C-alpha cells in the first residue's frame, strides 16, 4: 500500500502544487444484517476500497478519487486532481491559507476489539436478530418488526507532501430493534435502544451482546401497541424533560452543525446551509443557560467520532465548545481554522471514504452531565411531558428553528411520570431553548449515543458521530400532539 | 472500458460455478462524476470520482444474501459470490420470492443519452461553474454566490443466472446556485436550479441570472404562521413529489401498510387535471433503460386524472404483495436499509399558467421557492415537515409584495395534492444529486398549506 501512496504523491508533484495528500481506505468492510417480519430485510456484506488524492495550488484545491487500487489508477487520480486545481485556481479571489499543524510522522491507531464483529459467525448474529424480531410481535397490530445489526471496519493509510504519515483501523458496531403498530392511518413506531438502527459504538461484538435486544423486544412491542390507543400529546407551552437519546439528537442538530466553521464561513451556504453564529461572536455569545457545557471530544473511548488523526493528519483532540452557556469554540479544519486566525486546526476534518474530500464534521459532541438525578429533574415539574426516542427531525438552514417529533411521550404530573401520550412534537429556537434548560441530569442519566447517518457535502457524505447526553429539563417549550 | 466487455467473463464464470438450485443476479454500477462546488464567489471543492461497484445477490433455498465489492476481477467477483452465499445460507426464508427472471420485459428503443455530457472533462465542468458564477455576479454585484455543477454518467449492467443480461447508461448535468446578501439582517436570498441529460441543453448562465434576479431588494418581513394559499415553485414541488413517491408509491410502504395511499388506490386523491407519471424513458427526465434488477423501465401512471395508481415494486416486494414486479428496483446498498422500491423519475403534467398568473389567481398567500430539511412526521397520514428557504415572498392582491422570513410547514402531501388549483406551464427537471432520482415539475398553486412556525431570517 505504501508503494501506491508514494506513486500517487509522486504523480502530484509539480512546481505549482504547494501541497498534496493521499488517503487509501483498504479494506473497507460494511456488514448489514437485518430481519423484518421473519424475513431477511438486508443481508449485505460490502467489501470496498478507495483512494483519493487532494492537492492545493496557491489559490485552489483539487481532488480525485477512485475505487481502483492500482499504481496506474493512483497516478491518474493524482493527475486529475492537479488538473482540477489548476482549472479552479482561475476563479478565486486570492491565495488559500491553512494552519501550520506539525505533521505526524508515523502514527498508528487501532480500535480495541475484544470480539471482532467480522469473525462472529453470521448464523449467531442472524439467530439473535430473528429471536429479537419475533418477540416484537406481541399482538396482531404490530405489522412490522425489524431487528438490525451493522458493523464497519475501515483501515486507512494517509500520507502527505509535508511528511505526515499514519495508519489506522477503526471498527464500529451497532444494533437495534423497532416495532411498527398500525391501525388504519394510525402508525406508531417504538425503537430500542434508539431510532436510526439502534445504538452504535466504536467497539467489537461485545457491545452488541450487552444490548440484550431479545430481552428488550417484548417491551418495545407492547409500547408500540400502547401508543395506538394513547391520547394525543397535550398541546401548549409547558415544561419538557428530554430523554438522553432525544437530547443527543438535539445537541447534534442545534449545536453540532451550528458550530461547524465551514458553515459559519459560508462554504456550505447553498446546500447544508450556514449558521446563526458569526465568527466574531466566538468567546462571547450566550448559547444557553449556565448548565450548558458542550465539548467535541475525538479522544473519547467508544465514540464513533474517536480517531488518532483526522483526514488532514491532525491529531484527534478535545475541543471545548460551550462553557457555562457561552460559546467558546468551534469545529474546524486546517483551512477554516486559518481563516479564523487560529494557529492550529481543531482536527475535525473527516471524509466518508478515501474518495471524498474531508469536510468539517462532528466528532463526539457531548452535553456534559450536571448534578441532578432522574427523580430530581422530574421533581420540579408540576405539569409537563417527558419525551424520548426521535421520530422526526427538522431544522432551518441556520440551525435556529427546529421541530422534533418523538416516538413516545409521558405526562409528568407533580413530579411523577404518568400516562403515555402519542405523536408528541416540540419546537423552538436554538438559543432560547438552550437558555430555558434549568436542570441537567447527572452521570447516571448520561449515555454516549452513536449516530451512524450524519449527512453533509456534495457529493453526499455520511459520517458516523457520537453524542453524549444526560436527561435535561426545559421550561416554557411549545409542545403539541400531532 | 465498457462494463459489459470488462465484466463479461468474470461474471459468467461466477454464475456458471453456482451449484444446482442456487440462482443469482449480479449488478455492476460504473460511474464517473465531476462535482464543482463554489462558495463565497470561488470554486472551493472541485471533485472527480470514478467508481465501480459489483453487487452479487444469491437465492439459495429461497434464502437471499447480497455482497458487494469494488473488485471487478475474476477473483473479486468469485469472492463476493461466496460471501453472498455465506449470507444466504443463514438468511430467513423468503417464501414468496419469485426467482430471477430470464426476461426483463420489452426493452424498446434506447432512451436518450449524451456522450458529450458523460465524457465532459474536468476543465469543461469547471468552465460551466464559472459561467454560473459570472452570470450571478453580473446580476447581483456584491452578492455572495454559492452552488454546484455536477456532470457525469452511470452505467448499469445486470446479469442473472436465468439468462438475463442487460446494460443501461444515463448521463446527467445539473446545477444549483444561491445568491444572498449576508451583510443584511435578515439576509435576502435567491435560488435557481435545474438539470438535463445533456449539458448542452441546460442554460447554466440563465440559472445564475435567475438566482440573482430573485434576490429581493428589501429585507424579509415576519409573518404569522397559519394556513395560507401558496404558489410552490419547481424546486419546492420537486421535494414534495419526492416525498409523495416514498410515502404513497413505495412497494415497501404497501407491504407494511404504512403507505399514506394505502386504501386510496383507484380513488380520487387530486383534482381531475392532475396527471403524475413515473416516466424513466422520457427525454423530459433523466432517462435510463433498466432498473437495478434488469427490468426494462416503462411509463407507469401514478395519478391519472386525479385518481391514485399503484405502487412501484421489485422482485421481493412484488412477491410479498403477490403481484408482478413493476421495474422499480433500487440499489440494494441503500445506507438506511429498505426504503425502496419506488418511482424515481416522476413527471407532473404541466398546466397553462405562467408564474405571474399563478400568483395573480392566488390573490393572497405566499410564493415559496424551495424547501429545506424535509422529514416525515406521520407516514400513515402523509404528514411532512420542513422549512422554506432562499426566497419566500408574500402575495397580496395577486402580486408579489415582498420577501418574508422563512416559515416551517407541517402538512400532509395528500392535502397538498387535493389542494392544487392550478399548474404552471413551464417545467424543469430537478435531479437529486447524481440523478439518483429526478422530478420534472412545473410550479403549482395550492389552496391551503399549513405553516406552523417561523424563523428569524
Q: Would you mind describing this structure in some detail?
A:
The complex is a heterodimer of chains A (482) and B (457). Chain A has 482 residues and is α+β, with helices and mostly antiparallel strands. In chain A, 21% of the residues lie in helices and 40% in strands. Chain A has ten helices and 23 strands. With 457 residues, chain B is of the alpha+beta class. Chain B has two domains: 3-213, PmbA/TldD fold; 226-454, no CATH class. In chain B, 23% of the residues lie in helices and 37% in strands. In chain B, strand 4 (144-160) and strand 5 (165-180) form a beta hairpin. The interface between A and B is large, with 93 and 96 residues. Strand 2 of chain A pairs parallel with strand 3 (63-69) of chain B.
Main sheet overview of chain B: 6 strands, antiparallel
Number of discrete helical segments of chain A: 10
Strand content of chain A: 35-45%
H and E order of chain B = HEEEHHHEEEHEHHEEEHEHEEEEHEEEE
Q: In percent, how helical is the residue content of chain A?
A: 10-25%
Low-confidence sequence ranges of chain A: none
Mean of all residue-level pLDDT scores of chain A: 96
Number of strands of chain B: 19
Spans where pLDDT lies below 50 across 5 or more residues of chain B: none
Count of structural domains of chain B: 2
Q: How large is the radius of gyration of chain B?
A: 23 Å
Rg on CA atoms of chain A, Å: 23 Å
What overall form of chain A do the CA principal axes indicate?
globular
**What fraction strand of chain B?**
35-45%
Number of domains of chain A: 2
Largest interface: A-B, 93 and 96 residues
- Cα separation of the termini of chain B: 51 Å
Structural class of chain A: alpha+beta
Amino acid at each position: 500500500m505504501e508503494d501506491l501512496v508514494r506513486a500517487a504523491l509522486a504523480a502530484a508533484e509539480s512546481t505549482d502544487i504547494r501541497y498534496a495528500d493521499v488517503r487509501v481506505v483498504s479494506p473497507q468492510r460494511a456488514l448489514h444484517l437485518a430481519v423484518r417480519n421473519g424475513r431477511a430485510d438486508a443481508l449485505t456484506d460490502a467489501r470496498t476500497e478507495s483512494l483519493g488524492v487532494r492537492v492545493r495550488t496557491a489559490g485552489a484545491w483539487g481532488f480525485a478519487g477512485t475505487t481502483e487500487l492500482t499504481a496506474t489508477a493512483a497516478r491518474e487520480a493524482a493527475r486529475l486532481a492537479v488538473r482540477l486545481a489548476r482549472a479552479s485556481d482561475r476563479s478565486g479571489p486570492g491565495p488559500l491559507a491553512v494552519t501550520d499543524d506539525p505533521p505526524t510522522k508515523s502514527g498508528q491507531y487501532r480500535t480495541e476489539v475484544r470480539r471482532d464483529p467480522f469473525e462472529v459467525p453470521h448464523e449467531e448474529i442472524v439467530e439473535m436478530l430473528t429471536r429479537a424480531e419475533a418477540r416484537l410481535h406481541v399482538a396482531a397490530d404490530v405489522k412490522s418488526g425489524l431487528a438490525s445489526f451493522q458493523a464497519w471496519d475501515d483501515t486507512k493509510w494517509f500520507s502527505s507532501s509535508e511528511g505526515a504519515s499514519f495508519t489506522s483501523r477503526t471498527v464500529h458496531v451497532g444494533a437495534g430493534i423497532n416495532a411498527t403498530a398500525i391501525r388504519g392511518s394510525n402508525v406508531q413506531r417504538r425503537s430500542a435502544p434508539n431510532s436510526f438502527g439502534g445504538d452504535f459504538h466504536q467497539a467489537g461484538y461485545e457491545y452488541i451482546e450487552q444490548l440484550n435486544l431479545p430481552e428488550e423486544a417484548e417491551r418495545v412491542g407492547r409500547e408500540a401497541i400502547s401508543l395506538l390507543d394513547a391520547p394525543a400529546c397535550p398541546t401548549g407551552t409547558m415544561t419538557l424533560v428530554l430523554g438522553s437519546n432525544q437530547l443527543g439528537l438535539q445537541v447534534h442538530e442545534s449545536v453540532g452543525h451550528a458550530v461547524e466553521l465551514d458553515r459559519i464561513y459560508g462554504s456550505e451556504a447553498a446546500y447544508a446551509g450556514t449558521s446563526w453564529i458569526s465568527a466574531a461572536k466566538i468567546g462571547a455569545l450566550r448559547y444557553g443557560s449556565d448548565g450548558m457545557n458542550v465539548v467535541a471530544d475525538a479522544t473519547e473511548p467508544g465514540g464513533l467520532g474517536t480517531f488518532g488523526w483526522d483526514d488532514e493528519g491532525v491529531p484527534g483532540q478535545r475541543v471545548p465548545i460551550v462553557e457555562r452557556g457561552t460559546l467558546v469554540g468551534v469545529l474546524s479544519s486546517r483551512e477554516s481554522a486559518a481563516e479564523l486566525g487560529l494557529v492550529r486546526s481543531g482536527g475535525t476534518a473527516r471524509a466518508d471514504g478515501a474518495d471524498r474530500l474531508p469536510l468539517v464534521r462532528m466528532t463526539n459532541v457531548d452535553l456534559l452531565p450536571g448534578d441532578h438525578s432522574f427523580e430530581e429533574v422530574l421533581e420540579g415539574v408540576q405539569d409537563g411531558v417527558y419525551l424520548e426516542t426521535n421520530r422526526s427531525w427538522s431544522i432551518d438552514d441556520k440551525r435556529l428553528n427546529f421541530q422534533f417529533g418523538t416516538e413516545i411521550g409521558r405526562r409528568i404530573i407533580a413530579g411523577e411520570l404518568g400516562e403515555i401520550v402519542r405523536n408528541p412534537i416540540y419546537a423552538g429556537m436554538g438559543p432560547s431553548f438552550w437558555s430555558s434548560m434549568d436542570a441537567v441530569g447527572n452521570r447516571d442519566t448520561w449515555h454516549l449515543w452513536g449516530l451512524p447517518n450524519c449527512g453533509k457535502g456534495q457529493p453526499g457524505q455520511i459520517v458516523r458521530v457520537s453524542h453524549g447526553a444526560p436527561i435535561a429539563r426545559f421550561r416554557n417549550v411549545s409542545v403539541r400532539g400531532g | 472500458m465498457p462494463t459489459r466487455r470488462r465484466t463479461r467473463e468474470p461474471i459468467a464464470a461466477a454464475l456458471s460455478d453456482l451449484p444446482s438450485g442456487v440462482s443469482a443476479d449480479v449488478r455492476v454500477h460504473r460511474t464517473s462524476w465531476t462535482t464543482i462546488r463554489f462558495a463565497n464567489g470561488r470554486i472551493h471543492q472541485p471533485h472527480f470520482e470514478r467508481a465501480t461497484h459489483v453487487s452479487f445477490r444469491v437465492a439459495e433455498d429461497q434464502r437471499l444474501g447480497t455482497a458487494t465489492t469494488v473488485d471487478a476481477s475474476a477473483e473479486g467477483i468469485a469472492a463476493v459470490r461466496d460471501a453472498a452465499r455465506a449470507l444466504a445460507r443463514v438468511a430467513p426464508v423468503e417464501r414468496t420470492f419469485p426467482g430471477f427472471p430470464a426476461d426483463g420485459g420489452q426493452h424498446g428503443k434506447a432512451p436518450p443519452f449524451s456522450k458529450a455530457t458523460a465524457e465532459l472533462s474536468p476543465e469543461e465542468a469547471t468552465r460551466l461553474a464559472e459561467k454560473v458564477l459570472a452570470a450571478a455576479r453580473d446580476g447581483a454585484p456584491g452578492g455572495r454566490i454559492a452552488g454546484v455543477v455536477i456532470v457525469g454518467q452511470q452505467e448499469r449492467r445486470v446479469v442473472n443466472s436465468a439468462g438475463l443480461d442487460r446494460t443501461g447508461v444515463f448521463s446527467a448535468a445539473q446545477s444549483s446556485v444561491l445568491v444572498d446578501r449576508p451583510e443584511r439582517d435578515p439576509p435576502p436570498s435567491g435560488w435557481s436550479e435545474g438539470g438535463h441529460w445533456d449539458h448542452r441543453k441546460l442554460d447554466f448562465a440563465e440559472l445564475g441570472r435567475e438566482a440573482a434576479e430573485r434576490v429581493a431588494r428589501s429585507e424579509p418581513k415576519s409573518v404569522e404562521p397559519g394556513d395560507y394559499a401558496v404558489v410552490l415553485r419547481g424546486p419546492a414541488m420537486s421535494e414534495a413529489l419526492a416525498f409523495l413517491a416514498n410515502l404513497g408509491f413505495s412497494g415497501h410502504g404497501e407491504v407494511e401498510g404504512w403507505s399514506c395511499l394505502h386504501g386510496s388506490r383507484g380513488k380520487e386523491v387530486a383534482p381531475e387535471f392532475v396527471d403524475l407519471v413515473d416516466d424513466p424513458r422520457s427525454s423530459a427526465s433523466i432517462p435510463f433503460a433498466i432498473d437495478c434488477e434488469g427490468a426494462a423501465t416503462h411509463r407507469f401512471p401514478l395519478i391519472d386524472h386525479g385518481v391514485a395508481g399503484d405502487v412501484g415494486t421489485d422482485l421481493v416486494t412484488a412477491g410479498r404483495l403477490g403481484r408482478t414486479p413493476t421495474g422499480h428496483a433500487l440499489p440494494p446498498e441503500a445506507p438506511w436499509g429498505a426504503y425502496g422500491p419506488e418511482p424515481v423519475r416522476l413527471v407532473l403534467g404541466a398546466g397553462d399558467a405562467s408564474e405571474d398568473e399563478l400568483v395573480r389567481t392566488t390573490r393572497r398567500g405566499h410564493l415559496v421557492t424551495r424547501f429545506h430539511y424535509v422529514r416525515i412526521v406521520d407516514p400513515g397520514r402523509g404528514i411532512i415537515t420542513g422549512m422554506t428557504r432562499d426566497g419566500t415572498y408574500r402575495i397580496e392582491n395577486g402580486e408579489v409584495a415582498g420577501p418574508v422570513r422563512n416559515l416551517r410547514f407541517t402538512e400532509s402531501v395528500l392535502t397538498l395534492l387535493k389542494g392544487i388549483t392550478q399548474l404552471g406551464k413551464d417545467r424543469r427537471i430537478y435531479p437529486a444529486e447524481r440523478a439518483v432520482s429526478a422530478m420534472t415539475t412545473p410550479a403549482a398553486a395550492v389552496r391551503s398549506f399549513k405553516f406552523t412556525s417561523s424563523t428569524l431570517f
